[in-house]
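User: Before I run my own analysis I want an independent prediction to cross-check against. Here's the chain; please return only the structure tokens and, at the end, one sentence I can use as a sanity check.
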Amino acid sequence: MRTVLVVLFDGVQSLDVTGPLEVFQGGELHVPGSYRIRTASPDGAAVRTSSGLTVVPDQALTASATPHTLLVPGGQGTRNPAPGVVAWLREHGPRAERLVSVCTGAILLAAAGLLDGRRATTHWAYCDRLARDHPSVEVDPDPIYVRDGHVATSAGVTAGIDLALALVEEDLGREVALGTARHLVVFLRRPGNQAQFSAQLAAQTARREPLREVQLGAPPTPLRQWGRITENPGGDLGVESLAARACLSPRHFARAFQAETGMTPGRYVDRVRLEHARRLLEDTSDGVEEISRACGYGTPEAMRRAFAKALGTAPAEYRRRFRPASVPTR
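Assistant: Structure tokens:
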């Protein structure tokens, strides 16, 4: 049996606690005896979460043995942690077989020296702080979770569920993880290297209307077709074509697009096409060749290169791992 111990403190984010716990509890329901789930606060007293909920722990940290999986959630309380939390983590963290953080829980792990020399992530809004305060940590702001040896760190809130599902799959197999995901009405589909933001969220919205129409769209007229990149990922989305839709020169368009969105047109198009291809692989039974054309790659080989570069896997393998069992195959 694997003991999962969740560290509680005042100001903890309630979903950082309950999301992963529901996943591990789902694994326990599918395979009784797989997990023993415990919660602990510094002194064993109830804690108040950042949303105002009161949570009563099972025990005090001082009475807690080193668990198999030590999970540290995030929340406002990580800014000024209760006395003893960091010291307890510094003592017990290195002995845990698996060390996990959700959201800004990574800040507590870093303060305890448990992320030194490791690659890690946290909520996008706190990545700069984590990197600044702990230069020995290699902070990657993009993925929803990062695995580095026995240490796993994740981005905010729902990313903790994704990471917990990955751990259950590792412990108990894919079918158990899928059953847990279905029970929670979530999909076992987001790999750790998926970006915290979609292309549309990662890029700022352009201020000028012509650029915004190309980026986000505007209704078609008899003289204008859809200009939205996301509406037509398989179309001609070269700088010259996009610039013509915005009635700008290619050079002016490229410079203005990057200045206003924080991303080059090519980078934005690449991310939109990759996201669209992933959705089609997950949600349809369309063939790889058909998907590559629909997403603007042209050939399966071009799509394979894009997947290998961005995700470290091939489209067929991605589909095998992340398409729900309910999607039929041809």
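Sanity check: The chain has two domains: 2-183, 198-330.
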